[in-house]
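Entry 14. Structure prediction run on the chain below.
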Amino acid sequence: MTRYIAFLRGINVGGVILPMAELRTICETAGLKNVRTYIQSGNVLFDSSEEEDALVSLLEARLEAHKTRQIRVVIRTGRELEATLSGNPFPHAPGARVGVLFLPETPPADLLEDLVIPGREEVVASGRELLIHYPDGMGRSKLKLPKAVAAGTMRNMNTVAKLEQLSRESAQN
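Output returned:
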């Protein structure tokens, strides 16, 4: 069994309300094991022997059946979160000011070439993630990311660190 973390896009913002108790039930009835959610933004940890692509399809189908609209899901393993944390190109920035945009697949190599950054933000592509430093805060940013990353979902580095810790603790039990 592998410990996975699923990130749901757009949950409990923009009109898509999904209580975490309901999310846990959806995951458990889908056959996922040791299900645990973290905060209200659609983060769920679970164990499964299935592959990532199959899990994304399963969860997206179950969520759409439950909410009658598509909810995108991006999945990572605890080890992948650990690599994201250790590879943080902004280690001295406060965790709340570094966003990790989790993407379903590796973006094109030239994705950042035409990116216009109107403020002081810094953007680094790393595998299937974009790491963004928002020195003035995410809420004040005027940064517009390319449409090629629209299927992704962002979490701040503090949330990523907590999810990695929870994943590691679950693996030890």
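The chain has four helices and eight strands.
Filed with the rest of this week's runs.
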